[in-house]
Design brief:
alpha/beta; Rossmann fold; 126 residues; 4 helices; globular; 5-stranded mixed beta sheet
Length: 126
């Protein structure tokens, strides 16, 4: 089973939950990991985060208006130092209107791109 580390701002945790649920429902051989709480000022947190990232075969980075906040930068730097293949996903949504969107690259008004299910198991192979 492929382990993928997901880097996201605290406010974007619902996208992590939705991605993990979609992978489970599709019965993909992938396991997602992430740090729920961002405490970059605590050395024990950094060590735990580094160990989790090191055990993964790839990383997914959720890009949103919240990306510049919290420990996202530190996690991203750590994943780069581990030379993990990375996939950036643009995410936006609101629980108020019940509309969510995850896409690769730029969002278009015509249609959102669906998650490429076949790409998750191949992250480790790259």
């Amino acid at each position: 089973m492929t382990r993928v580390y997901v880097i996201h701002a605290d406010q974007d945790y619902l996208f992590f939950d939705r991605l993990a649920a979609q992978a489970r429902s599709a019965k993909l051989p992938v396991e997602f990991d992430h740090m729920v709480v961002k405490q970059t000022w605590v050395e024990n947190w950094k060590g735990s985060c580094r160990n989790r990232i090191y055990r993964c075969g790839g990383a997914i980075v959720f890009l949103s208006k919240h990306t510049a906040q919290g420990g996202v930068g530190w996690e991203l730097e750590c994943a780069q130092n581990c030379a993990l293949p990375m996939l950036g996903l643009c995410v936006e949504g609101s629980s108020a209107n019940g509309r969510w969107w995850i896409g690769i690259g730029r969002r278009s008004n015509d249609s959102s791109k669906r998650w490429p299910r076949d790409s998750l198991p191949t992250l480790r192979a790259q």
